[in-house]
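User: Earlier you gave me the apo prediction for this protein. Now I'd like the version with 2-acetamido-2-deoxy-beta-D-glucopyranose bound, so I can compare the two side by side. Same sequence as before, with the ligand SMILES added.
Assistant: Got it. Here's the input I'm using:
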Amino acid sequence: MFLLRKRVVTILWWVGAVRAAGAQKKSGFDFVDPLIGTINGGHVFPGASLPFDVNGENQGGFASDNSDIVGFSHMHDSGTGGGASLGNFPIFPFASCPNNNISSCPFSYYERPIPRKPNTVSARPGYFAITLSSEIHAEMTVTEHAALYRFTFPKVPTLANTSLSPVIMLELDDLARSAQAENITMYERPMGRMTGQGTFSPSFGIGRYESYFCADFKGAKVKDYGIYSGAWNTKVQSLKGGKKRDKNLRPLGGWVQFNVPESQNQILVRVGMSFISEKKACQNAEKELPTFDFSATVLAAEKAWKKKLDVITIDAAGVDEGLLTTFWSGVYRTMLSPQDYTGENPLWDSKEPYYDSFYCIWDSFRSIHPLLTLLDPKSQTRMVRSLLDIYKHEGKLPDCRMSLCKGLTQGGSNADVVLVDAYFKNISEGVDWALAWEALLSDAEIEPMDWDVEGRGGLLSWKKLGYIPTDNFDPNGGTGLVTRSISRTVEYAYNDFCIAQIGRALGHKDDHLKYLKRSGNWFNMFQPNQTSSINGVDTGFRGFLQPKYMNETWGYQDPIHCSPILGQHDCYLNSGGGETYEGSSWLYTFFAPGDMASLITLLGGPERFIARLDFLHESGLLYMGDEQAFLMVFLYHYVGRPGLSAKRARSYIPSLFNETVGGIPGNDDSGAMGSFAALTLLGIFPNAGQDVYFITPPFFKSISIKNPETGKTATIRNVNFDGGRENVFVQEARLDGVKYERNWLQHRFFREGGTLELVLGKEEGKWGTGKGDGPPSEGPFGKGGELLPKSGLGGR
Ligand SMILES: *[C@@H]1O[C@H](CO)[C@@H](O)[C@H](O)[C@H]1NC(C)=O
Ligand SMILES: *[C@@H]1O[C@H](CO)[C@@H](O)[C@H](O)[C@H]1NC(C)=O
Ligand SMILES: *[C@@H]1O[C@H](CO)[C@@H](O)[C@H](O)[C@H]1NC(C)=O
Ligand SMILES: *[C@@H]1O[C@H](CO)[C@@H](O)[C@H](O)[C@H]1NC(C)=O
Ligand SMILES: *[C@@H]1O[C@H](CO)[C@@H](O)[C@H](O)[C@H]1NC(C)=O
Ligand SMILES: *[C@@H]1O[C@H](CO)[C@@H](O)[C@H](O)[C@H]1NC(C)=O
Ligand SMILES: *[C@@H]1O[C@H](CO)[C@@H](O)[C@H](O)[C@H]1NC(C)=O
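And here is the structure of the complex with 2-acetamido-2-deoxy-beta-D-glucopyranose:
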């Protein structure tokens, strides 16, 4: 997803290229730089987070630019291309108010933003700190449902003629400023407690959600407290001593004023969050942070992260340290979402886990979920169960979901791919595969009323015509955006491919055949005579996916349209049109991940295929900042040229994926860019939905992954490793000492452990080039596409 350019969020924090300095680094944890991707549209959330937890401070609400700080909030999504997500109930500290008069304090959203102090940001997993220009040092850490802040105030406030009398305010709003029906209650006991609620809009979806907080303070005596009102020229009312609230004031927030802190000029703020109630928010905070112990909480968060990261071991001898930062930070970001909201789902009662922020599966199915399956199968299992529970209670699998709401569908019903990928990788504990099968069939067969938020649209045509017509009209079905007919066609076809595969494994023979047939539907939008020119110069390639109408005649979309070369942003959900979502026909013409053999035949055979794929990568047509590009790096494996994939991977890392703050080429989309980099650096990029990992030499001397379920370790070792300079081509491979010819791996290797040795050289070797060495292909067109209709063969 690469939406959103319009909305610039006023944001909560910092500046500058931070690169943790070298000295005593030990584990992967030490290499994580949460700030990568916090500038230039990466939308990464760098604040304190736990793996998959409800809370972190700030959102993608922070940016490494010079924007002012308006507050610190407790829940975020990372890397979204949609609107600003979450960021509910931000708090903000003042050392004093003008003339020591609370009524003059600039509480409003428009008046309070202040600059950050340059070079004061410090970010690592579970911890974030920054100093404001008011000389207040703000630190934050997290537990599962609560955030803990530590504000250190200056002895003398920077504001003239005032003395230290800290004020901490809380605003009843979110990053998108979507709050409604908000309210706040102030308590004399516990000291200065505030609780409250509001309803909010999801950032890339429909409906509303309710959120609740409970804030408590420690470290100074309360002098006064109350509420404020008014977006400008705020009116302030004290409620001290149980004063009655002024009926004319609609509270926009609350504030607590303190005497000079008791120790080190510090005040701690604990904010519990809940989607259930204010009471639950307080209970969450009291349970997880009973003593407001800041350092113990940081340590616990670090420990949780280390445990997640320590399943990977890297031998980085001879490799630039930047690659390690890119790698570990990518793994870290992969683990920020989906978030575990178990116990916090107000929508239905269930014993199943509840995860949220599947944001969005179109972005995450290709690399995030496969990487989680490798590193943290327990969490992936719970996510799969949660997806099925959502199906059970909402009637459909989500394609995107955030803050308890349905999110927007971008293409296919790609939760299908997540489920099938998990199935073939032995994700099974407590998973009801019969229910999964039902959910998959529902996606494939039953059109929902609003297919902009779930399922598929145009199913009538899909079944009758075998493609999504560009002018589709569906008298019986639901409604949705009638765009993206080409990209939806190829994605639906791949979804059906995945259903066919699991169908066979589950013993549904007829369905296997039925969906395998439908998996060839991508072919139906292939216009064999279509040519493509750039600036009037013929590219020399013929045959591209093209719009096709209900009457089976062809339409036209320039094959380069919606690429970086022509109208790149014309095919977004919110830009009104285009038949190829966030990419060009050039790109989508390569998308037949289940049956690459037939596609290669269709495009004129291996040599023409390689030439065309090279052209895609080298002509400027491909944008690596969007997820459909990922697989394109590795398709050379299907023509027996794994060395070309290895070489191609090295043309993008580190040039586009690196350790700088701007080091990702597009929205991170909850870790998609990070997981792409991590998997590519490991040399095991997956073809999601299949039990296939493409082997390319790791960027490190060796890598090991310990499967947390089986306890077995899989190691890939490069022999003749020269730091990745010249020896990047596999000459020969040995799996546990036995010659290994295939250029791909199966998940068994990671479950059962073993050692794969790759002997490297300067030139492409013979390894993996033989017939039958490539990954499998299957479809309705015969083994190598020999049953493709002859009139369909283009590409010359
Ligand atoms: C405090 O500020 C308010 C608003 O600016 C003003 O109306 C009020 O008179 C001030 N109070 C004192 C004691 O100066
Ligand atoms: C601070 O107080 C001094 C002396 O009373 C006065 O001259 C000055 O204007 C005040 N400054 C501000 C910012 O109010
Ligand atoms: C808001 O909270 C106050 C204080 O707890 C309460 O008296 C009031 O009824 C609430 N208002 C609404 C609309 O819920
Ligand atoms: C893992 O999954 C594969 C593919 O579905 C299956 O053949 C194998 O038996 C499974 N292994 C275990 C230990 O469950
Ligand atoms: C492609 O061109 C050939 C030769 O002109 C023609 O016979 C065929 O019908 C065309 N196919 C399509 C789909 O337009
Ligand atoms: C087919 O449908 C398209 C789109 O509605 C229309 O422009 C075209 O004229 C139709 N062609 C025929 C042969 O009916
Ligand atoms: C790092 O990645 C960014 C974003 O893709 C790119 O613009 C930049 O040139 C890269 N920097 C280096 C030093 O490779």
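For your comparison, keep in mind: Residues 485-505 form the longest helix (21 residues).
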